[in-house]
Amino acid sequence: MDLIFGQFVAGLSYGSTLFLISAGLTLIFGVTRVVNFAHGSLYMVGAYVASTITATLPSTPLGFFSGLLVAALAVALVGALIEVVVLRRIYAAPEIFQLLATFGLVLVVQDLVLIAWGPEERFAPRAPGLAGSVELFGAFIPEYTLFLIVVGPLVFALLAWLLRRTRWGVWIRASAQDRETAGALGINERVLFTSVFALGAFLAGLAGALQIPRETVNLQMDMGILVEAFVVVVVGGLGSVTGALWASIAIGLLHAFGTWWLPQSTLVLIFVVMAVVLVLRPHGLLGRPQAEASAKPPTHLPFVPLPTRAKWLWLAAFAVAALLPLVVGDYIVVIATEMAIASLLAASLHFAMGLGGIVSFGHAAFFGLGAYAVALAIRLADAPFALALVGGPIAAAAVALLVGVVVLRSAGVYAAMLTLAFAQILSSTAIQWVDITGGDNGVLGLWSSLPAALAGELGFYWLTLGVVAASLLALRRAAVAPFGFSLRATRDSALRAEALGIDVARVRWLAFAAGGLFAGLAGALHALQKGAVFPTALSIPVSVDALVMVLLGGLQTLSGPLVGALAYHGLSTELVRATDHWRLVLGLAIVALVVLFPGGIVGFLRRRFEGKSR
Amino acid sequence: MTTRRELLALAALSTPLSRTFAQAGPIRIGEINSYSTIPQFTIPYRMGWQLAVEEANAAGGVLGRRIEVVSRDDAGKPEDAIRLATELVSNERVALLAGTFLSNVGLAVADFALRSKVLFVAAEPLTDALVWEKGNRYTFRLRPSTFMQSAMLVEEAAKLPAKRWAIIAPNYEYGQSAVTSFKALLKARRPDVEFVAEQWPALGKLEAASTVQAILAARPEAIFNVTFGADLPRLVREGNLRGLFPRVPVVSLLSGEPEYLDVLKDETPKGWIVTGYPWDQIATPEHAKFFNAYYKRYKDNPRLGSVVGYSTFTAIFEALKKAKSTDTEKMIAAMRGLAWTTPFGPVVFRRIDHQSTMGAFVGKLDVRDGRGTMVDWRYADGAKFLPTDAEVARRRPAEAQK
């Protein structure tokens, strides 16, 4: 009995913490439609500022808790600043493009915090006044745990009051429901967005600050919490604060009892919960179907066959790429190989995302599947290299066909989070199924199975270049074929597409599988190039990199992912070599690119060179 | 006249000499570590090797050549480390590679070393596979491995009366292999023990309240802890508050390292039996020399990473001196059986598996002046905590011994 009670309390306190973190995220998304990757960063800044402020204030309950509040207010200011300086300029950009800006901010904040506070972890003293524990039903429960259990619902009550009883709250709800009508009724969107963002940041900062009596403040806490916060928001239903509360409590309790009954499940538990909820309720617990893209569908010119001159240009670019190794050293060849693989990964994501509007936060799943399929075919079945290379993408596509059935029942961010859940489940399989996958230590020594002609950097580069070029051509061909046009029709208006006789579900499903196929091919090449595969191939950073490359290049053009991949990979690999503060520089560069070229690099170039005639 | 002739002779001599010197140029060493991902560990490590390089260059370099280190940040990704290794070898023309902290990054670079036939001196990765199952002839590893550190703790754990053991370990390779070794070694010594509970929190995401509750529920008589980093302080504070510590004795891997004690400060759990580095109490001349030089240079005390960084590079310099060359084969021959002195005392790179015999300090945690420290400690020589040669030969590929 005391045990069940203890786990119950533990689950509630974890749930309460989860709610504090996700409340701000869901508010921000509900109103501004910004997928705020920087939410974890705001949480981290809150914790750092709080640890510094509380250290200077007197160690009394008043001093301590006012310190936490001041820290949260400081973070609210940072949030407002971010909104005004960066996000406000790009609301007009295509859907989820803001994600790119917030990703840039994540990098910037990581480095700034390192510069400001140094690398050491900080462990604040226990909260004054709540430093001990009390005995309840035979279990010792820390006072601070009980306090946290109260804080979550308290913050929820305040938010509910704010949203339901104040004029500002009415504006927020109106704007969340229908932004355009709200605007037409005279609600000042600018002020509203800034204030919502500041409130969301305040909550993130408060959540971070409240953690300092429980855990260390460190430089890894931003990404750690971000994914969990997203899961809660999606399970609860995007934009629903009440949903976030229920989702937090449910996940908190499931986690507490789940790790007790099945201790090995920690890596996947939360994602399995999310997947199950989204399969049963495609819009989360309390979410409503989003109004059919209330904002403008992205103006997207129909593709036209390339003019002959452009064809020659592409051919020349290919020739230059093919002849490159004759003039540069091994290292540049390696970079060029990686760039080609990255382009293919980006193009595979773009196919479903740019043309079909199917966003994926877990594209690494197919990349990693391709990589692992190759690795295991070689390691376990002694498959010849060529067979393994073909098998990788086929395995990825087969799985994509299966997963697509589930994922595509949801839409937008929900579908994206389902792909993430799937990728995380695969990743934890790779980590825990040590006998087969080698666990974290990965599968090594794949290079020894390469035929002699491909074992060197040069041979493999030409192979990659050929495979990637052919794949990109195939993707382009599919995009300008009737299939591609149907796919774009399903994205712009599923209803009209249906009316035209397009089998919407089937088209989207096949597009998703095609994305999986080519991501798997990229993964297969990656495995053979590196000569080894690790669970990192399935990890969130790979998915994020793929997203960043696509968005950077621009969603609206077929050459976007290629250019985005070259720019991002080139920039990040060179900056790592050039400076210790590569994240700061890279982050600032991304933010600058987003603000200057909200259509992506290629979108910008195209407008620049083709004039604004459209 | 004589002076003039002498001068001419000198000039005649010195010209070719200085030319060969210039041709030889500095010895370049490629270094890779996760500087941006886990700076709390890798930055003290970098300060350690930088000190070793400065000392070597102040003493006229190695083999008469200056030491130049080209250092790279792998961002915690093994794939990136492979690319950077290529860059260091083919672009920067380094003579050998060194570094790494994370086990999978270490294995990735080791695999690259095998593929490219380059010497790699792994500094910090702990995985047993690096020198055993996945070992290769180009890779050497300095720090005592997961197996060695677990074995050191088993010796102490077996002395405890406890029969009911619980385990808390991070859910990835390091945790998995530490637990496997610990269980097997403890069972061998104490057939009467049983393992009654296991908790496997995701790395960096330990949910302390439910973990501690679940452990308490099993009513263990002792606990083996492998968690570290951000997870450790959470566990300690929650365990203190819930009456788990100090009631139940804990045997804990690495927790005595200053990297962790610096964070825990006055909350350091007294009485935990740990492996670590009591930097403030070691009185040997080797350590005093290192400590003074380090403190003079940085005005800060060394962490364990500092010792590892410093020792890795002094080992490399000694190997270069012994090999009298930067040829990979000659360096490997020199590294095998290389004996040199680290701040922890004399250490050897074993011929049989390229593992160094560097040890660790085993003792109990205590709090003094509001800081965590170790008491009742002794130095456990790594050489004594390795499996039999037959066992090593069974686990290590035969080609690695050629």
Q: What structural class do helix, strand and pairing data of chain B support? A: alpha/beta
Assembly level: heterodimer
CATH fold name of the largest domain in chain B: Rossmann fold
**CATH architectural type of the largest domain in chain B:** 3-Layer(aba) Sandwich
Instruction: Let me know the average pLDDT of chain A.
Output: 89
Q: What is the alpha-carbon Rg of chain A in Å? A: 25 Å
Protein model, in words:
The complex is a heterodimer of chains A (614) and B (402). Chain A contains 26 helices and two strands. Chain A has a two-stranded antiparallel sheet with strand order 1-2. The longest helix of chain A has 31 residues. The radius of gyration of chain A is 25 Å and the shape is globular. With 402 residues, chain B is of the alpha/beta class. Chain B is built from 13 helices and 14 strands. In chain B, strands 7-6-8-9-10-13-14 form a seven-stranded mixed sheet, with helices on both faces. Chain B has a five-stranded parallel sheet with strand order 2-1-3-4-5, with helices on both faces. Chains A and B meet through helix 1, strand 2, helix 10, helix 13 and helix 24 of A and helix 2, helix 3, helix 4, helix 6 and strand 7 of B.
Structure summary:
The complex is a heterodimer of chains A (614) and B (402). Chain A is mainly α. Helices cover 72% and strands 1% of the residues of chain A.
Please describe the topology of this protein.
The complex is a heterodimer of chains A (614) and B (402).
Chain A: H1 2-32, H2 39-56, H3 61-85, H4 98-117, E1 133-136, E2 139-142, H5 143-165, H6 167-177, H7 179-184, H8 189-211, H9 221-236, H10 241-261, H11 269-280, H12 308-323, H13 330-355, H14 364-381, H15 385-407, H16 412-432, H17 434-437, H18 452-455, H19 457-480, H20 482-492, H21 494-499, H22 504-530, H23 540-553, H24 560-578, H25 582-596, H26 600-610
Antiparallel strand pairs in A: 1-2
Helix pairs in contact in A: 1-5, 1-8, 1-9, 1-10, 2-3, 2-4, 2-8, 2-9, 3-8, 4-25, 5-6, 9-10, 9-11, 11-16, 13-19, 13-22, 13-23, 13-24, 14-15, 14-16, 14-22, 15-22, 19-20, 19-22, 20-22, 23-24, 24-25
Chain B: H1 2-24, E1 27-33, H2 39-58, E2 67-73, H3 78-91, E3 96-99, H4 103-116, E4 120-122, E5 139-141, H5 146-157, E6 164-168, H6 173-189, E7 194-199, H7 208-217, E8 222-225, H8 231-241, E9 250-256, H9 258-264, E10 273-276, H10 285-298, H11 304-323, H12 328-335, E11 339-342, E12 345-348, E13 360-368, E14 371-380, H13 389-395
Parallel strand pairs in B: 1-2, 1-3, 3-4, 4-5, 6-7, 6-8, 8-9, 9-10
Antiparallel strand pairs in B: 10-13, 11-12, 13-14
Helix pairs in contact in B: 2-11, 3-4, 5-6, 7-8, 11-12
